[in-house]
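Open question from group meeting: does this chain pack into something compact, or does most of it stay loose? Before anyone orders reagents, we agreed to write out a predicted structure and look at it together. Recording both the input and the output here so the notebook holds the full record.
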Amino acid sequence: MQLALEGWRTMSLSTALELSQQELESELQEQYPFRVGVRSADYESAAARCPPDKPYTVTGFGRYAVHVRELPESQVKKLQRIADEIRNSLSGTAAAKPITQVFILGHADPDPARESREPGFQQYISEVRAYQAYNYVSCNLGETLARRVRWIRVGRGARSLAVPKPRTEAERKCNRRVEFVLVRTSSLPRMDPSKIGEASLRREAFAEYYHIALQGTSGQYDKPYVATQKAKEIAEMAVERIAQRAAQMQREKCPEDVGAEFVPYFKDALQGTASKFSDPAIAVEKAWNIAGQSRYFVQEQEITFYYWKYAQLPQPMDIDCEAGVRAESGPPNQVLCRTHGHVLDATARMVIAHDLEEYKKRSQKRSSDRIQRRR
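Structure tokens returned:
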């Protein structure tokens, strides 16, 4: 504690005034980590402010933890039970109603200090938690069963808190969670038949240009022999990384694909990371993470985006829709969808316009029609 207080005294007055109490606590924890003895009763009181334990909500992540192996055993068992429930639903027995979609929602705890330094960090860590939970459950199912399920992985950052104003580590762990929703009906948006070809071409173009953008720039080193040597080391490490993951997949019978769907993103990202990081191991690991983010979040979300862009409206909102701000000039219940960009009727849970521009045009036309009728 004394060490942390000494660190606080060395901070400038202007910095101190700018930090909220929670930001100050985060800064001190990062710079001067320490443990303070707390009575078990205090922990119980903190835990009591968390929502009741739920079978489809996994909690207990450490401050920046994302891996299932870092969770308490009781929470890992929840994931195992979820995998068992999905497996049983796909057994083919007459009584089983198959689970066809699994919605996985990752959350972060507010971290103002880290977020101010790295904007988007909370969103990123919530997405990684969702992915790691998915990976554990799908690997438990095995490739054949996992491919029969539509997996929807989403991060909500720190926008949906289980404990709105956490004061203890126990409460923050309640916020760092992953929620599962098991759905027994299938629902990709219905495509407008006349737009299917256009949507397909646009999706392909998106993938191509996204790959190009990932390539980045080259020329980190002035001396050619340094550049070629570094490139050689990076290439060797990349090949080994792919081989290790492929071998691990074979042992675990994991459905994750590091072949045709993953490698192109990895190659593109590697060109960019190799231009920035002098340590080959870091360049390879950064590219691997970027490729995973691209493949499992950006690309999947864009596919769904284009389905909705050419969907027949109105129709019920998708399971991963997230209500955002109120649509301009509209009633309070008509809001923008943060996930897909279309306009929702939050009360009826329906998609009513493809985007805000279309929504405004319809509103203007209705107003014009009313004026004409009055005349």
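Observations to bring back to the group:
The chain has four domains: 1-37, 49-183, 193-309, 315-374.
The chain has 14 helices and nine strands.
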